[in-house]
User: Fold these one by one.
Assistant:
Number 1:
Amino acid sequence: MKLRSALPALAALALAVPAAAQDETAKMDRGEQKLAKLLEGRVAGEPTNCVMHRPNARLYVIDETALVYDAGSTVYVNYTRDPESLDDHDYLVLRNPTPSICRTTQITTRDRGSNTFSGVIFLTDFIPYERVREEG
């Protein structure tokens, strides 16, 4: 009986959550959903410190979620030290004298509209995801 009497209070509490907080949750969920869709049919491999830079590979941001290095058959995900600061409206600037992108690679971001400095990205390990091979 106590649960039944508490339901109206819980419903009122849920309605009291500010719209901004709901928008933030929805925004983060969209990034996580986008990443989940990208990784469908793939399995995680052993994390690595570096990935070899390939000319046809693409490095991009999933908003407030992760950096993705798409090398075709393998997709590498780097959740960074502060994924909440990732903004897909920024572009990445890599300062990297080596042919690899590593945890120590210096990455800054710039706003696409104003071309002004907007932040620094600190990398963690890259997690490789490869397509599941069907046997048979």
Note: The chain has one domain: 2-131.
Number 2:
Amino acid sequence: MDRKKELKLQYRETETEAGVYQIKNTRNQKILIDSTTNFKTMNGKLLQLRLGSHLNRSLQEEWKQFGEEAFVFEVLEVLKKKEEGYFDAKDELKKLEQKWLDELQPYGERGYNR
């Protein structure tokens, strides 16, 4: 097998992790709480911010104002999958995100969530 095919196979076999993360502005401590079924998609959020196309206008404006160096991406919690019985990952991920929204209250002056 050539190296390119080997790498593609290895990528497909890599288990993805779902969970909740935050994008934090270290200058004013405002945060955006979000969830994802695959933490690798956080790179896409970073790219959106760099290109000026992130859907959260308030976050995008402050990214432009303060610069990339003022922001950090942090995983808050990884979704733990049940080994037995029924497990609705989407539903559990929504609950996990809501738990963090309730705890951190990233609204208004405290954050970018609506």
Note: Residues 18-110 form a domain with the GIY-YIG endonuclease fold (CATH 3.40.1440.10).
Number 3:
Amino acid sequence: MPTRVPSSPTQRAIGLLVRREHSRKELTRKLAARGVAQDEAIAAVDRLAQEGWQNDERFAEGLARSRAGAGYGPVRIRTELATHGLRSEQVAVALAACETDWREAACIIIMRRFTPAVLKDPRQRRKAIDLLLRRGFAPADAFAAVGSGAREDVSNWDWDSTE
């Protein structure tokens, strides 16, 4: 049985990157967790970044689009991107790349989960707002989605009735 040649830090990093995008910080951490020395991990990630295999901007845009498509708001996405060690400029570019109308996205979530009759109850309206806030939407967008009907098809809902 032939002996297996241990893979280099660069090969290990490529193995991780072919599965999905990783941020520089995440890739370095995963290599260190697999027994690669910190300086070797950094050197491998630097090399892959120079060659275009690893790109924080590409990672950030992909993650932001994925989270926005899953119904998360900009506050939560911004926080998650920050945990990956991305600069605020990179985060701003990634959120802009989503091309999402956040208020519209909040309205869609409310329309899927709540009926107009249910939202006449102030407690249910509060639950709807809490849902949006937990998902990372700005308070103004959450209140607008539940209270003012930012979409045409919800503009005729009677939000003020407590019957």
Note: Residues 149 and 155 are 5 Å apart (CA to CA).
